[in-house]
Amino acid sequence: MRQEQRLAAILGKLADAGSVSVTGLAEDLGTSVASIRRDLQSLEEQKLLKRTHGGAVAVEVIYELPLRYRVGRREEKRQIAEAAARFVTESVQSVGLNGGTTTTELARLLAVTRPLKVVTNALNIASDLCPRPMIDLVVTGGGVRPESYELVGPIADRALAGISLDLVFLGVDGIDARSGIATHDEVEAQTDHCLLRTADRVVVLADGSKVGKRAFSRIAGISDVHVLITDSSAPAEELDKLRSAGVEVVVA
């Protein structure tokens, strides 16, 4: 198991149990105690846990996990991405993608379909799409947000101001019928809002854990969202509220 996979597994176990032991992790992950201690030190330096004698505990403040550690709900996100790809019909010539695990899955699907113009502020998506001959890629400038590999801030916002797209796919940290769509970071929220404003149609991609939830920074009101694509774990009552608010809901 690679270190990145171990770190994600450790964070997952910590989220479930609140604490972990070095010996237990070594046994569960099939690696040495010395490797686990190095892993815990790395995660503590990133303020993602607090080491204790013989193990670690969750930090009191909940941090947004960096994109490279977000490996949960992979099957659900793949299904959401597949459902989203079906919205890119022959009439769609240009799409926008922000950063996130689900939009990254979608980008990989779009890369092998047909000629398409793609605008993104996500460095990892740009890296995936750059060598694809059928993709006409446009990347915004901006300051890098390491947690999501996104380019955000005034430079990105100005670049998006002069663009018009057929369809924008947004990954979000929360969608709620009353408060709209939101993310953890206020600068990212502003850039996401600018990307949203470029499109004739906005499709939000959110697994069930984010439906009915709020995050710190509002991206836009629910009236700006045309479609939500989620999975079967989304609370039915929250989906009904979104439908009543005029959002088309697709359960992948």
Automatic annotation (TrEMBL):
Pfam families: DeoRC, HTH_DeoR. Residues 3-58 form the HTH deoR-type domain. Keywords: Transcription, Transcription regulation. InterPro entries: Carb_Metab_HTH_regulators, DeoR-like_C, DeoR_HTH, NagB/RpiA_transferase-like, WH-like_DNA-bd_sf, WH_DNA-bd_sf. PROSITE patterns: HTH_DEOR_2. The keyword Transcription applies. SMART domains: DeoRC, HTH_DEOR. One of its GO terms (molecular function) is DNA-binding transcription factor activity. PANTHER family: AGA OPERON TRANSCRIPTIONAL REPRESSOR-RELATED, HTH-TYPE TRANSCRIPTIONAL REGULATOR SRLR-RELATED. This is Transcriptional regulator, DeoR family. It comes from Lentzea albida. The lineage of its organism: Bacteria, Bacillati, Actinomycetota, Actinomycetes, Pseudonocardiales.
